[in-house]
Design goal:
Elements lengths: L1 H4 L2 E11 L4 E6 L12 E4 L6 E11 L5 E6 L5 H6 L4 E5 L13 H4 L3 E3 L5 E10 L4 E6 L14 E5 L5 E5 L4 E4 L7
Parallel strand pairs: 7-12
Antiparallel strand pairs: 1-2, 1-6, 2-5, 3-4, 3-6, 4-5, 7-8, 8-9, 9-10, 11-12
Length: about 180
């Protein structure tokens, strides 16, 4: 089932209807909301409604609410909008904006194996948390993880900044840390 979604990137989740004309509030997950424009085809996690075409998008708030008001083609009233409430929306990977050097998609980082400079396995990236200063990788240790002095928990954070990360190889799903474990 998950293999079906490997060709897509999640961009948001429909929160609830907005008004009576079929608009909905979309909780944004993407860092590129301005790339969602009229005519964009978004795909869903629903068997009955597999895709939706953007008719209009407005009130994009990337700072506080991380949401937008969006109208889809053929969703004409509040009742129809209610039927798509809670759907996750995806964009095909080939329609995603191109990233700059040293920029990565969150879903490409999740699942990466993390190693220290000596190539000892530390854990797997479970999640990315966005903070004002920088993003943080949530690393989950498992039975193959090396012991790290001072970290007794199964999960811990590593800042996603150049000071801590030596290399990211998305094709190999591998991240090599720059700092020694004692600095984590």
């Amino acid at each position: 089932m998950l293999e079906k979604y490997n060709r897509f990137r999640i961009i948001g989740i429909i929160s609830k209807p907005h008004g009576i004309h079929g608009e909905v509030i979309l909780n944004l997950i993407t860092d590129y909301p301005y790339s969602i424009v009229k005519g964009t085809i978004l795909y869903t996690n629903n068997e009955e409604i597999t895709s939706l075409e953007v008719e209009s998008i407005r009130s994009i708030d990337v700072n506080i609410r991380k949401s937008a008001i969006i109208k889809f083609k053929n969703i004409e009233n509040k009742e129809e909008a209610q039927k798509i409430k809670g759907l996750s929306l995806f964009r095909s990977k080939d329609q995603s904006p191109k990233l700059g050097e040293l920029e990565y998609w969150v879903d490409d980082l999740i699942g990466c194996k993390v190693y220290n400079q000596e190539n000892c396995y530390i854990g797997t990236v479970k999640e990315i948390y966005k903070n004002l200063a920088n993003d943080n990788l949530l690393i989950k240790k498992d039975k193959n993880s090396i012991e790290i002095e001072g970290i007794n928990e199964k999960e811990f954070f590593i800042p996603l900044i150049e000071e801590y990360i030596s290399e990211i190889d998305i094709n190999q799903k591998k991240i090599i840390l720059k700092k020694n474990q004692e600095y984590l």
